[in-house]
Amino acid sequence: MSPVNVLMDVDTGVDDALAIMFAVAHPEVNLLGISCVAGNAALPQVVLNTLKILDAAGAGDIPVAAGAVRPLIAPARDASHVHGADGLGGIVLPETNRRPVGQGAVGMLRDRLVASSGPVTIIALAPQTNLALLLRTHPEVAAKVERILSMGGSASVGNATPTAEFNVWHDPEAAAIVLDSGIPTFMYGLDVFNHVAVAREQTEALQASSRRAQKVAGALLAHRIGMGPGREPVYTGLIGDAGAVCALVDPDALRVERLPVFVELAGASRGQTVVDRRQFPGEDRMHGLHSAVGLTDVALEVDAQRYVDFYLATIAQLD
């Protein structure tokens, strides 16, 4: 199988870092560039984290570009209570000689898409502000995008709010623009995200490795997440965003349905991905409401152990 041309859009926290390492390691992923956006941490920290993780993975010269510092409309927020103040759970990584490219994320994404000889898959692991700005500024590049595979949304419960997942909730207008762009979309949301976890013993074995990439992956997986004020941080072992990259090269581990999806932009459910799983149309469809909602491939179930094994076997190829 020929490698898939990939652009990644990240807000590099713990699980984005795990995803980048997997993308660098897997031979079926041809990583053309990485754009960064504020989300899990402020933009300068996200860029620095991305550069350092590329070092840890022993990556080649992959362009990294800084993008949006805040959502299109909503105020800037971060997830430091999940990823730590530095976005990487406080793990210490060496200083890097890598530098982001001079142009911004929108320009880099546009140039990489235009220059690609074949279609490109965008893996969106962050609030989709950069992608919305790209599609509004350079709508012609949509023809070069084979599909957008995103870690975002949920067909069930949320995490940022009872109904909304963080990446979509952080910039719901951007997510709606991307979803309505006409580009084929694949949603790897919380329904599968929350199930793919590495056992503590395997994480400890990675931490004890003498190989740089293994130790870094182990440290990231070992990060304990605070689950609320006054509650002790807990070990989850989730590979998180990395599962979306696994889905690119091993989609058969997922049960996927093509369903109508739209983003709620107002009220208490703002940021919710409304996934229509009804067997028959309801009153809204009968009266023409939401009639323009497009179809999205939504991952609903996952063979979690298959992805854990796949992830660990892939990063074992790194030095």
From TrEMBL:
Inosine/uridine-preferring nucleoside hydrolase domain span: 6-308
Keyword annotations of the record: Glycosidase, Hydrolase
InterPro entries: Inosine/uridine_hydrolase_dom, IUNH, Ribo_hydro-like
GO CC terms of this entry: cytosol
GO biological process, one term: purine nucleoside catabolic process
Record's keyword annotation contains Hydrolase: yes
Pfam family, one: IU_nuc_hydro
GO molecular function: purine nucleosidase activity
Protein name (database record): Nucleoside hydrolase
Species, as recorded: Subtercola boreus
